[in-house]
Amino acid sequence: MLEKREFYINGEWVTPSEARDHQVIDPSTEEPCAVVSLANEADVNKAVAAAKAAWPDWAATPPEERIALVEKFYQIYKSKAEELAQAITSEMGAPIDLSRAAQVGAGIGHTKAFLAAAKDFQWIKPLGDHAPDTMIVHEPVGVCALITPWNWPMNQISLKVIAAAIAGCTMVLKPSEESPINAMIFAEAMDEAGFPKGVFNLINGDGAVTGNALTGHPDVDMVSFTGSTRAGAIISKNAADSVKRVHLELGGKGANIVFADADDKAVKRGVIQMMNNSGQSCNAPSRMLVEKSIYDEAVETAAKTAEIIAVGDSHEEGRHIGPVVNEAQWNKIQGLIQKGIDEGARLVAGGLGRPDGMNRGYYVKPTIFADVNNDMTIAREEIFGPVLTMIPFENEAEAIEIANDTVYGLTNYVQTQDGAKANRVALKLRSGMVEMNGNPRGAGAPFGGMKQSGNGREAGVWGIEDFLEVKAIGGWS
Ligand code: NAD
């Protein structure tokens, strides 16, 4: 078994100050695949001190030099793609093809988009013709705590680390304890790229001890967090005493509005998108709202689509979905499926238990519930598993009302061949992102949510700005 107990602090791999071993379990096999250490408060203090000491020089380094280092890192990152994909598959169970193309692919893609955005960024610019002597200056926020989840680990780590580095911030990354190994490979690439000591630090750890010490640390200026709404609220409170900037990317319960005039692939596409990564995506289209005139046909298509989605060992190549991340998540999903049945939703595909013939691994059957009412638990809670709820609607106004009737506001989806209607509906949806007719947002578009899905935006120029202070200087000559 892989043993990787060190943390990356001040440009070197160091031994933790206390033995707090943590086993990483491969969800396809239920066997441990690695052991790492969990940082205690002393380790957190050491990592924050390194980031603090490195900050003045890094902040003063010209942006072109910071960008050049990221460019170097980008080449090394690409060369480690296969190693990263294998680690992700073992740690969190994404099928290897998905790990290669999407999991690692997204991280590399964001890095490329950041490099493009950074080259055009105006670090100092005049306010405008009406105030020619007022200059707007962008400065790094300072020492950042970056806390990430396990579901799209390279994606989330890249969104934070690369943006912070370009902005001139120094940082301590704490990846999820479920998926620490890919983050350590990422750290090896940062090391090879030659960032100055202390600019980037990595500690592994849990939320209760490590995360808590990091997000309450007086020398941390900003926390950038991606994870559950539950943990986001705790972190906000913890960071409040020292008035840190807190960026939150949290949960979702996306609606996918399928109008009667949608293209004939819309329902199938929605099911496949929902099941991708075994439903473990914050922006999963987990509530399919279907116009009544095509509802019965849509339910039939969705059930048939779910039944032919293969579930299989993540280490094997080919098109299938893998397990969910761990036993606790498997149990939670089973509980929610049972709740759906108990509350009167109609189960049309999948259901309780593992798929036939699978006795090991945290595998869940691709599951579809029809006749769901938006008040049911399965329509309100983020399930984070391959479970789709289908809700009928009468007209455009009702579809918008149901879509917005949630505490979340991350991504919604619209399917119609009427362009004017698509745009009209998109503008009324309370979410940070809307995708229409299977068209994804462009690379470098802002990513983030409204309401309890969080605040701030990641990716592209918005992602860099998130790590910057804006200073206004009057009397510039
Ligand atoms: P989680 O909140 O349990 O953990 C996320 C990270 O926070 C981990 O590193 C964990 O160790 C840490 N953490 C937990 N409690 C903490 C605390 N009290 N203080 C400091 N750190 C703490 O979430 P998860 O299960 O890893 O990820 C799934 C969740 O993440 C889902 O809700 C999903 O929607 C959300 N997510 C959101 C986005 C987005 O961009 N909006 C992207 C991916 C995942």
Intertermini distance: 63 Å
Instruction: Give the overall pLDDT as a whole number.
Output: 97
Coarse structural class: alpha/beta
Number of helices: 15
**Biggest sheet character:** 7 strands, mixed
- Regarding quaternary structure, what we see is single chain
How much of the sequence is in beta strands? 15-25%
Q: Work out the number of β strands.
A: 21
Overall helicity: 40-55%
Report the bound ligands by name, code or SMILES: nicotinamide-adenine-dinucleotide
Biggest sheet, spatial arrangement of strands: 15-16-17-14-13-18-19
Domain Aldehyde dehydrogenase: 13-473
Organism: Maritimibacter dapengensis
Family: Belongs to the aldehyde dehydrogenase family.
InterPro entries: Aldehyde_DH_dom (IPR015590)
Characterization of the model:
The chain has helices at residues 41-60, 63-79, 81-92, 96-119, 153-167, 180-193, 207-215, 229-240, 266-275, 295-307, 327-342, 377-380, 396-404, 419-428, 460-465, and strands at residues 2-4, 7-9, 12-14, 21-26, 31-37, 124-126, 135-140, 143-147, 170-174, 200-202, 222-226, 245-249, 255-258, 287-291, 346-349, 367-370, 387-393, 411-415, 433-436, 454-455, 468-473. By secondary structure, it is of the alpha/beta class. It is globular and about 65 Å long. The strands form five sheets. The protein has a seven-stranded mixed β-sheet with strand order 15-16-17-14-13-18-19, sandwiched between helices. Strands 10-9-8-11-12-20 form a six-stranded mixed β-sheet, sandwiched between helices. Nicotinamide-adenine-dinucleotide (NAD) is lined by residues 147-152, 174, 176-177, 206-207, 211-212, 215, 226-228, 231, 234-235, 249-252, 282, 382, 384, 410, 449, 453-454.
